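We read letters as residues; the integers encode the fold. Take this protein.
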Amino acid sequence: MLLASARKMLSGRTHVVVDADTALTTAGLDVDDDLAVLWLLGARDVRVRALTAVHGNSLAALTCRGAHNLQAACGRAQIPRVACGGGFFTSFRSSSTSSDAVEALADTAHESGRPLVLLALGPLTTVAALLQRHPEAAIKIGLLILMGGSLRN
């Protein structure tokens, strides 16, 4: 329903950046974010521009590995940019990426000739850091979709 609203608002092919706590091939972790990315890759009118890994249901190193595993399984053409770390709580960076997740999101927004849908499936630390470091990137985000988490008292 939300993606249908995004499609209506952003005419043509929807360009999506995903910030998620991916866990592909990590035993014992939820793969819900991975399944969401796979669903997006199968949608003909969606183009995934970037996947960034945020720590959420696991350590940053494991979510980063999950993002790279997802990219390897789907192919670089399907997910052209993968980056990890760089939010407020982690400085972990994958050795195979030249920039952290925040910079990758900012670069993708800057390079995009159209509004992006930012799908934040994990904790919002990367999104918050993006808006703090690159407030101009907010102009390029046509729609922000959040997946809620849990509260503990």
Strands lie at 14-20, 46-53, 82-84, 116-120, 141-146. DSSP finds five helices and five strands in the chain.
